[in-house]
Specification:
The chain is an alpha+beta fold and about 170 residues long. It has a single domain, classed as Glutaredoxin (3-Layer(aba) Sandwich). It is built from five helices and eight strands, in the order H-E-E-E-E-H-E-H-E-H-E-E-H. The protein has an eight-stranded mixed beta sheet. The longest helix is centred in the middle third of the chain and has 15 residues. It is globular and about 40 Å long. The termini are far apart. The N terminus is likely disordered.
């Protein structure tokens, strides 16, 4: 019920246009599930630049952002980018229908308990967080628009070029 309220609130405030907001806070170490149901902690990606994207099948901008994020995954994975696409659908079959209509190579994760969007402070759909190699959220994007791809690339290049402080 709580999850339904959170998703309903987010559906009411879907944001279509966005720009990256600078942040500087530790990413919450949320627990997710792989498509096969195996548990994964977000901390397992520490040492990589991580793009965490919250999406759902009912989110209209997600139909455009999902393939764009998959392109970023293919383009930057070998250089150290991990895309963590977190589905927020209440019914798994809704997500599976979306995924079958949107072929992808990036890994998709699920949050059956609905804790991850709350921990991150998600306010609209889709919302993405770019996390540096040290586990600090550096950029946030709410919504999706056509011009955001170049912004993502610039931010990802910047984070990939940074050295990790010991």
């Amino acid at each position: 019920m709580r999850r339904a309220a959170i998703l309903g609130m987010m559906a009411a405030i879907v944001i279509v246009g966005t720009s990256g907001a600078a942040e500087n806070r530790a990413a919450p170490d949320v627990r997710l599930q792989t498509e096969q149901g195996a548990p994964v902690q977000l901390a397992a990606f520490k040492g990589k630049v991580v793009l965490v994207d919250f999406w759902a099948s009912w989110c209209v901008p997600c139909k455009t952002s999902f393939p764009a994020l998959d392109t970023l995954h293919r383009e930057f994975e070998a250089r150290g980018l991990a895309v963590v696409a977190v589905n927020l659908d209440e019914r798994r079959k809704d997500a599976e229908g979306f995924l079958s209509a949107h072929p992808h190579t990036m890994p998709v994760f699920f949050d059956p308990g609905g804790a991850a969007p709350t921990a991150f402070g998600v306010k609209g759909m889709p919302t993405s967080f770019l996390i540096d190699r040290a586990g600090i959220i550096r950029f946030t994007h709410q919504g999706y628009s056509a011009g955001i791809g170049a912004e993502y690339r610039h931010e990802i290049e910047s984070l990939l070029s940074e050295r990790v402080k010991p």
